[in-house]
Write a structure and sequence with these properties.
Oligomer: heterodimer
Number of domains of chain A: 2
CATH class of the largest domain in chain A: Mainly Alpha
Largest sheet of chain A: none
Largest sheet of chain B: 2 strands, antiparallel
Largest interface: A-B, 23 and 22 residues
Radius of gyration of chain A: 22 Å
CATH topology of the largest domain in chain A: Cytochrome Bc1 Complex, Chain D, domain 2
Strand order of the largest sheet of chain B: 1-2
Number of helices of chain B: 10
Chain lengths: ~220, ~270
């Protein structure tokens, strides 16, 4: 039998590859499939949160902030419980980051509030005296891109079966319904804010980027 | 310093081993080179032949065969029973580290004195509280509650003037300006001094929610007799607050009772150190 294999080097190579690949797969796949299931209670992002996530990506927050708490006491003391892979189930792409110029943000919703973020994005040194983070004042005037966020939500719902609109999960609905819900969420955030321009914009039915970003940051917990 | 490195017995052993390995290598290599020169192989040649290189149809040496078989049996055992699922895991090490540290922390600071608590509280305050209340605790120009007056008559007066809400007590919010002028000051003094001495008649306004004894009628409203004590701070830390200034998150489960007490001791030192 072995002589027969030795006489067919290409077939033999493919066979060796398959055997080793199979051994690797049965070690990795079952555990991975289990661990990457959504953690109980993990919800797909609402339209407003998703729009805020786009602001986060657009302004490269992930270049300086990670979203991954490692299981070390020094990290869990500061940032909260260590991250689980299932918590990223609805993150496309995940925003783990690779560098902590600023602190980790994976559970920032647990210990910072809307009014704090408002102060911080307007002028970081007003709340963190030594901060080197730049101010993001343009977020108070530019409006969030809800259309793109809705397109993404609808795509992941249809293509990846993200459980939008299923019982017990985030409601998305039609574009009109989703937009109305986003505006309602935005009003709740704006009620906790002090910036007059932002409040007026939300009253007019617009959603400044800062409101969407705060909705996203508050959802990180 | 020992100038002669060969006086160290580890070095002596290493040198001895190096010499032995050298002679073994020479001996083994010499044996096989000689064998390659003189050995004549025997046995039946296999049919295939690669550029003049052939192969004998000899059986596997029995030592190899048994080792190979043994490896397969060990592999089956390891796969089904022997895999060290109960042995090491990163999360297990983390859990042990946290448990050990918590036990050490609890026993070390169980009866810490006030000075120690204040120092511990300062460290926690700078990390957890300063982002909103400021490094000096002054609330950074109205971004959060001014803790440099908290626990004093001025603090109570500010609460009476501005109202208070959002601690999550069943009685709900306390409106601004329940009392004004001298009456407010008198009540503020009375509450800040631990509700000792003669009760001002105006305290009746407060008693509607906090009770005549100020104890909050069994959890309906904040217990004013604890005002200005670390226990009151610990209560706020656990409940969080959504007040008139902004929202404070709850620190429940994030600080230990000792740490909460320490933060309380530090905050009190801010208003009472002068």
């Amino acid at each position: 039998m072995f002589h027969w294999l030795e006489q067919r080097p290409f077939f033999f190579s493919v066979g060796v590859f398959l055997v080793i690949a199979f051994a690797g797969l049965i070690e990795i796949v079952p555990d991975f499939a289990q661990a990457s299931r959504p953690v109980a209670g993990t919800q797909p992002y609402t339209l407003l949160q998703l729009a805020g996530r786009h602001v986060y990506i657009k302004d490269s927050c992930n270049a300086c902030h990670s979203q991954l708490i490692r299981p070390f006491k020094s990290e869990t003391d500061r940032y909260g419980p260590y991250s689980l892979s299932g918590e990223y189930a609805y993150d496309r792409p995940f925003l783990w980051g690779s560098k902590r110029t600023g602190p980790d943000l994976h559970r920032v919703g647990e210990y910072r509030t809307t009014d704090w973020h408002e102060n911080h994005m307007w002028e970081p040194t007003s709340v963190v005296p030594g901060s080197i983070m730049p101010a993001y004042k343009h977020m108070f005037t530019q409006n969030a891109d809800l259309e793109t966020a809705y397109a993404e939500a609808l795509t992941v719902k249809k293509v990846f079966n993200v459980p939008y609109d299923q019982p017990g999960f985030t409601k998305l609905g039609s574009w009109e319904e989703a937009k109305k819900q986003a505006l309602e969420d935005a009003k709740k955030i704006a009620a906790d804010m002090k910036n007059k321009d932002v409040k007026e914009a939300v009253e007019r039915g617009e959603i400044p980027e800062i409101v969407a970003l705060i909705a996203y940051l508050n959802s990180l917990r | 310093m020992n100038s002669n490195i060969f006086q160290d017995n580890i070095n002596q052993l290493a040198l001895l081993a190096a010499v032995i390995i050298f002679f073994l290598t020479v001996f083994v290599a010499g044996k096989y080179i000689k064998q390659m020169k003189t050995d004549k192989s025997t046995g039946e040649l296999a049919d295939e032949n690669w550029d003049g290189i052939g192969e004998y149809k000899n059986e596997l040496p029995s030592g190899w065969a048994y080792t190979f078989l043994g490896t397969m049996i060990w592999g089956l055992w390891y796969w089904t029973m022997g895999y060290p699922v109960d042995a090491y895991s990163q999360i297990g090490e983390y859990n042990e580290e946290v448990a050990a540290h918590t036990a050490m922390f609890e026993s070390k600071w169980a009866d810490a004195d006030d000075q120690t608590l204040q120092e511990m509280g300062e460290g926690i305050f700078l990390v957890q509280c300063a982002p909103c209340h400021g490094i000096a605790g002054d609330g950074m120009g109205g971004k959060a509650a001014d803790l440099t007056v908290w626990g004093s008559a001025a603090g109570v007066l500010a609460t009476i003037q501005n109202g208070s809400k959002g601690l999550g007590y069943p009685m709900g919010e306390m409106p601004a300006g329940m009392l004004s002028g001298d009456a407010a000051k008198k009540v503020a003094e009375y509450v800040a001094n631990g509700m000792k001495g003669e009760m001002p008649a105006e305290f009746g306004v407060c008693a509607g929610c906090h009770g005549m004894d100020g104890k909050g009628m069994g959890g309906m409203a904040p217990d004013l007799t604890k005002y200005g004590s670390p226990a009151f701070v610990a209560d706020v830390l656990e409940r969080g607050k959504k007040g008139y200034i902004g929202k404070m998150v709850s620190f429940k489960g994030r600080l230990t009772p000792i740490q909460e007490k320490a933060v309380g001791a530090y905050i009190l030192s801010l208003s009472r150190s002068e």
